Amino acid sequence: MVDAGKRPPSGTAVALLAGVSQKTVSRVFNNEPSVTEETRTRVLAAAQQLGYRPNGAARALLTGRHDRIGVVSLSTAHYGPSSLLVALERAARRANYSLIVANSFDDDASGIKAAVDNLLVQGVDAIILSEPIDDGEAPITVDVPVLTLGGAPSVQAPTVLSMPAAEGGAAATEVTRHLLALGHRTVHHIAGPQRWWAARERQRSWHEALTATNAAVPQALTGDWTPRSGYELGRELARDPDVTAIFAANDDMAIGAIHALHEAGRQVPGDVSVAGFDDIPLAAHVTPPLTTVSTDNAELAENGLHYLTAFLADPDHVPAAPQTHQHRIIVRNSTGPPPT
Amino acid sequence: MVDAGKRPPSGTAVALLAGVSQKTVSRVFNNEPSVTEETRTRVLAAAQQLGYRPNGAARALLTGRHDRIGVVSLSTAHYGPSSLLVALERAARRANYSLIVANSFDDDASGIKAAVDNLLVQGVDAIILSEPIDDGEAPITVDVPVLTLGGAPSVQAPTVLSMPAAEGGAAATEVTRHLLALGHRTVHHIAGPQRWWAARERQRSWHEALTATNAAVPQALTGDWTPRSGYELGRELARDPDVTAIFAANDDMAIGAIHALHEAGRQVPGDVSVAGFDDIPLAAHVTPPLTTVSTDNAELAENGLHYLTAFLADPDHVPAAPQTHQHRIIVRNSTGPPPT
DNA sequence: CCCCACGATGACTACGTAGTCGCTATGTCT
DNA sequence: AGACATAGCGACTACGTAGTCATCGTGGGG
Asked: Which pLDDT score is estimated for B42?
């Protein structure tokens, strides 16, 4: 005997009590046909009485399926990843999957590879990379399908599904254009940590929008997503009288920057326009209400998970990658024409 | 044969390649003594070559341990629960546990019970109730230890550990006292959804602080944690000229309320003082910077998880419940004396 | 110089589930 | 009425791992 403590009741115990075979108990719990209604109720009664629950580990060992999906994320403390994770969990539950999370923290030496290894030992049917990471490490070898939300990751897997990567791209371009259209000569950028694909993508699109209109491209400043970093970088920008428009890679940094600008006596949007990204719930309620980009993480999660589970259910008939979700620019009062 | 697809390599395959027995492979991967350095390296080389990873399901089936902890939460979209979850995952990883999350959404009929069942079928060594829920349902029967962060849940389990429930209590009292000390006759309250223990606890403490000083106890308004609900309730409060101080159960609602007050032409803190709860990173950067309560979720998670894993490792020598974490009231500019 | 202790390893087994196949009883069709 | 399909169920087995115990070889003490 391996375990001295009392184990939960097994299907065999239920079978014994119900006067049937273990196999019949299995049939009942898997809703297989060919079971009399009468035996079914008898088995269920016995199971109820013993408090029986099927043992997922045994099932997984036998079938190779875990009904579990691993998610690798980069610290879900921020609003974007966090809301995405919640949406994923909700969608997964609906598809009868559980979610197991592995974060890779910035301050944590053990990188993505450790997180992935962890998931694989636990047993997952697939892995979702919520942020295609580019640590510059050697590609990670994985033996389950991988779904990546965004750009292509450096992963070697039997199958790599990918949600269309339009993500921030189009929207960041649009925000920049919006500011230029208001009359700003150029737009400054507070970027996110370059380790994040979303940060790189937004910066790239900003850059593109500027060069497309022959606007000068100022040096981008790099924050860490926190309002504090936005505040600090905002103080730098506040010193430069040429700065009239700022696009921050997320709302938190945008609000931090506005704080710094106010402190320096510069009006928003009178003197400087500021736009963010994410449309956090607070964005509409800060002063001034923030122009930003609304990302439909719920839809992204829903589509991505549906895509993935469809593939898992039938690898031969993979549906087309779902259409990119919509990003909408939300113009509020933090952006306006430059001072004359 | 059950599964037609190719399965990942097993320990037996590694053993075959390394010219040892499966048991020796097991020994190597569990760092058992009594293995020659030479065989160890040979086994590891073979494992590396085949891309072998131990099968967690098989191990769990045999040993009854999963190295996995389930977390039941009420929608981790909000800052409090979300940051707590991240901290839990970090602490769990350090203790060599994985985290598996099950949310119970407000708009979701399947309640806590479904979430817990889910976790138990998946297989977990323990369950953490990050919010002791009181759905008024019959107590849930669980066959693994339960750790609850906060008040006692209606759960029947072999062991129920509980982190000291001082949580919001003392701090909410302190905030209310702070406002009274500034000279306010009473303090209005925007509460959170009553399904959440934290919401009830904060409301209770607010109530207590008022009655303790014989202040009038206004009817509490109940929001849903979102800034929007704070805004809407704030509009109601803004109409009442007697309202000079508001304590909102979280920062988001506080900021929403400030928005409504500003819109109604009432100055904060000149006309009305507003305090929040959580000390979200944005709290210091909104206008005006928010007086709030800083909760050390990282410490709570760390202590709670350590407490739990210590118990799992040796149920006979349970350490004392860790000391309640510190809550600090952070006074910023959103609170001040009432208008004269 | 023999016996024994001990280190290193292998054979065997159980964990709980679901696939496969075989058996029995009950129709059903000709 | 006899051959045969079919529904309902059970016996047997494999999945990959780690506990238990047996086995082999080697070095040291009597």
From this structure: 95
d(CA A138, CA A161): 20
For chain A positions 139-168, those within 8 Å of chain B (CB to CB) are 141, 143
Per-residue pLDDT tens for B98-155? 999 988 766 565 677 888 888 999 999 999 988 766 666 667 778 899 998 876 667 7
Domain annotation for chain B: domains and CATH numbers: 11-57 (1.10.260.40), 68-165+298-317 (3.40.50.2300), 169-295 (3.40.50.2300)
Give the side-chain half-sphere CA count within 13 A for A327: 21
Contacts of B37 by beta carbon, 8 Å cutoff, 6+ apart: none
Q: Is the CB of B22 under 7 A from strand D?
A: yes
Highest mean pLDDT pick, A106-110, A314-318, B299-303: B299-303
- Contact state of B227 with A64 under an 8 Å Cβ cutoff: no
Confidence of residue B3 (pLDDT cuts 50, 70, 90): very low
Top-confidence residue, B20 or A132: B20
How many Cα atoms within 13 Å fall on the side-chain side of residue B132?
Answer: 23
Q: Residue A276: name the closest of A237, A246, A250 by CA.
A: A250
Question: A123: which chain B residues are within 8 Å (Cβ-Cβ)?
Answer: 55-57
Could you tell me which residues are beta bridge partners of residue A15? none
Residues of chain B with pLDDT > 90, as a percent, come to: 64
Provide the pLDDT for residue A2.
33
Q: What token pair was written down for A291? A: 């122009």
pLDDT at position B46 over 80: yes
Residue B1 has pLDDT above 50, yes or no: no
Q: Which residue of B has its CA nearest to A122?
A: B56
pLDDT band at B75 (very low <50, low <70, confident <90, very high): confident
Question: Residue B209's beta-bridge partner residues?
Answer: none
Q: What is the mean pLDDT of chain B?
A: 88
pLDDT, position B155: 75
Q: What is the DSSP string of A195-232?
A: TSHHHHHHHHHHHHHHHHTT---PPPEE--SSHHHHHH
| Of B111-125, B174-188, B230-244, the least confident | B111-125
Tokens linked to A340: 């004359």
Q: Which two tokens stand for residue A55?
A: 């043992």
Q: Which of A204, A225, A229 lies closest to A280 in space, CA to CA?
A: A225
Instruction: Find out whether the peptide bond into A269 is cis, omega within 30 degrees of 0.
Output: yes
> Which residues from A are below 8 Å from B54, CB to CB?
121
Phi, then psi, of A259 in degrees rounded to 5: -55, -45
Total-model pTM: 0.90
Q: How far is CA A51 from CA A10, A67, A139, B18, in A?
A: 10, 22, 45, 44
Nearest to A90 among B93, B103, B231 (CB): B103
What B326-329 contacts at long range (C-beta under 8 Å, 24+ apart), as own/partner pairs, is: B326/B296, B326/B299, B327/B166, B327/B167, B327/B168, B327/B170, B327/B171, B327/B174, B327/B293, B327/B294, B327/B295, B327/B296, B328/B171, B328/B293, B328/B294, B329/B171, B329/B174, B329/B175, B329/B178, B329/B291, B329/B292, B329/B293, B329/B294
Amino acid symbol at A333 = N
Burial of residue A134, with CB atoms counted within 10 A of its CB: 0-12 exposed, 13-18 middle, 19 or more buried: middle
Structure tokens at A243: 């700065």
Query: Cβ–Cβ of B281/A121 closer than 8 Å?
Result: no
